[in-house]
UniProtKB/TrEMBL annotation:
Protein name in UniProt: DUF1638 domain-containing protein
A Pfam family: DUF1638
Residues covered by the DUF1638 domain: 80-255
Domain of life assignment: Archaea
Source organism per UniProt: Methanolobus profundi
Amino acid sequence: MPLLTILSCKILQDEVVHILKNDHLVDEILVVGNGQEDDLVSKLRMAGLDHLLLSPAKLRSDTETYRNDPEKYSVMIYMVELALHEFPKILKTEVYKLIDELGQCSSGILLFYGLCGNVFDKLDIDFSHLEDTCPVRILRDDTRVVDDCIGATLGGCGEYLATLKNLSEHGTFLFTPMYAHAWREIMRVDPVKPEKTIKMLRKVNEMTGYKRVAKIRTGLTYTDNFDEKVDEFAEIFDFEVLELEGGQDLFEKCYEDIKHDIIGCK
C-alpha cells in the first residue's frame, strides 16, 4: 500500500493528529525531523500514536520501503515553518520546492493549507503532471479551495463568508487553539522587548477597527490553555471575547478523498 505525505502549516498540527488518531488503516506514521516537528511529536505521543522520525537529507532512501510495501499504508508528516506566512511568495516557492522533492518518494500529497493570499490558487494546474504518479491535493470544500486555515475550520468558503458578514460591525480576530498559542509569533512580537510591538499593534487595531477576538471551538484538545491564551490577548488589547463553533469535517473529507484516490478505500 502507498505512502501519503501531509505537507502542513504548523497551525494545523492538531488537525493532523486528529486525522491520524482516527484512521485505523494507518500502519506507520513518519515525521520529518526538519526542526519544526517538536510540538507535533509531543501531541502524537499524547494521542498514543507511535511514529518514526526521518532525516530530511535521506527521505528518498528512507521512504522507499514504505512506499513499496504492499502490506502497509503509511503517512508521512512534513511541518512547514510558520514564519513563512509573513512572506507569501517565499512560502509558495518553498512549498512548491517541497512538493517536487516529496513527490519523488510519495504516492500522494495533501497540503494542509488554503489559498493563503492566493499563492496556491493554481496548485492543481501547476502539479497536474504528477496526477498519475503522485496526485497533489489541497484543502477545499465542495466548490473551491478554502481561503485559509480559519475557513477550513469553520467548514468551508460559504461558512467563512457568512461568519465574516455576521462579524462585520467590528473587526474581529478569529483564533483556533493553535492560532492562540502562536499569536505572538504570527504577529512578530519581539520576545525580548514586546512592549514596542504591542504598542504598534494597538495603534493598528485602532486604525482598522478591530475590537474583538473570537474563540473557534474545534473539538480538539491537543493544545493547552486555549481559553487562557485568548483571554490574555483580549486583555492586552482591551477586546471583547466571542465564541464560534468550528469542526473537523472538511479536514476529514479532504483526507479521505485523497486516501481513496491512492488506495481505493474510505
